[in-house]
Amino acid sequence: MANLTIPPDWTRVTNSSLDPGGTDDNPYKCIFDEDFKYILLPVSYGIVCVVGLFLNLLALYAFIFRIKTWNASTTYMFNLAISDTLYVVSLPLLVYYYAMGDNWPFSVGLCKIVRFLFYTNLYCSILFLLCISVHRFLGICFPLRSLQWGHVRHARRVSVAVWAVTVACQSPVLFFVTTSAKGDTITCHDTSSKELFGQFVIYSSVMLVLLFCIPFLAIIVCYCLMARRLLQPTRGISRLSRSKKKSVKMIIIVLVVFIVCFLPFHVTRTLYYSFRSWDLSCETLNAINLAYKVTRPLASTNSCLDPILYFLAGQRFMKFRGNNVLGKPHNEVALGIVPNSHLGTTNDTDTLSKDLKS
């Protein structure tokens, strides 16, 4: 379609998310076919709902009924599982909404809550992954200091702070998000009304920096320092030990999953919002619109990947039964719950990484 030289406010696609106010009185510059969305989003959200609900309920069962003694890492993972569970139980509403072709038959309040839960889970996941990363970093690089800051009571306080900060930062979503009627259908926007869209973009940009960019950089720094420490050869041993190899693999896996789930969504969303105020070709607008729709399900898959990460990190909560190991019930050892007092009796880097990788 030709690129007409007209004001950018006249740009529109068939999807209502690029026209949050729902006004239909403007000429249309670009019309895009988004039929793919009505298959992609219901199917992907449905899979995330089923798989995520099963895995997170299983994880919560393990945390609540099988683990007798908690450490800091267990506390963070438990809160992460709660966040994921709250989100996946809201997904059936979105599955129905997109399967019906962007028709929201529920109340405005439910629309606000569903969008709020998405962003709350998104940034709770990022912040709790940051907490887990910092905890591992202290345990491997500063084991003596981790004796003080790695205590479970500090983890509980940090968890409360994470919830408070995330809920406070995402509460404006309840104000911005709204619905609009278009003919016989009602759209549940994931942005705001047209009049408030400029303020919503400013708010989203601040959240991008505070709750994504800064934690992401902190995680990268922590894992780079951890990898350098773990890759240092242990005296008298030329090869990496099994525990060190596993820790290095976990660093790579967490970074890859973090980049796959969160980075594409934030990049495409930023471009998506920015391009709406620029006079660009229809091909460019179509490309970024397509990219944004595709990365939205990716951001939701963290609810399925977080429980898998527990297992990959050595949190084998699936193995509830077994023989006692050194007087500890098998389920406690499987979750990496090792008393902090063990850390003060050895200076071996391999033992520290094994004890503190959780």
Sum this structure up briefly.
With 358 residues, this protein is mainly alpha-helical.
What does this molecule look like?
This protein is mostly helical and 358 residues long. It has a single domain, classed as Rhodopsin 7-helix transmembrane proteins (Rhopdopsin 7-helix transmembrane proteins, Up-down Bundle). Helix content is 65%, strand content 2%. It has 13 helices and 2 strands. A two-stranded antiparallel sheet has the order 1-2. A hairpin with a 2-residue loop joins strand 1 and strand 2 (185-188). Helix 7 packs antiparallel against helix 8. The longest helix is centred in the middle third of the chain and has 34 residues, at 108-141. 38% of the residues are buried. The model is unreliable at 1-28 and 314-358 (pLDDT under 50). It is a multi-pass membrane protein. GO terms for molecular function: A1 adenosine receptor binding; G protein-coupled purinergic nucleotide receptor activity; G protein-coupled UTP receptor activity. The chain crosses the membrane at residues 43-64, 76-98, 118-139, 160-181, 201-226, 247-267. One of its GO terms (biological process) is positive regulation of mucus secretion. This is P2Y purinoceptor 2.
